[in-house]
Amino acid sequence: MEFYARSVPPDPIMFEDNDDDDWYYDSIVRFQQLQMFDFDSPVTHVDFSENDQICIAGKIRGDRQEVQELSLPEKNSSSAFESHDLKMKTGGFSTKPIFQMKCLKNQRKMVLSENTLKGVSVYQLGCEKSDDIKKLCEFASEITNPLLAVFDKRIVFGSSSNEIHVANAEVNKVDLIVPSNCPQERETEIADLCTWSDNFVGYCESQTGKVTLIDCRSLERKSFSSLPSKLADSVNARFSLSVQENGNLIGVLSSGGHVSLFDLRGASDSPLYKVEVCPDSSSEGKELPLILFSPLQDRFFSVSGVSVGVSVYRLGESDAKSVFCYDGHSRIKSKTNVHVINHIWSPINENMLYSSANDGSFHCWQFIENKLA
Question: What is the pTM of this model?
Answer without folding.
Answer: 0.89
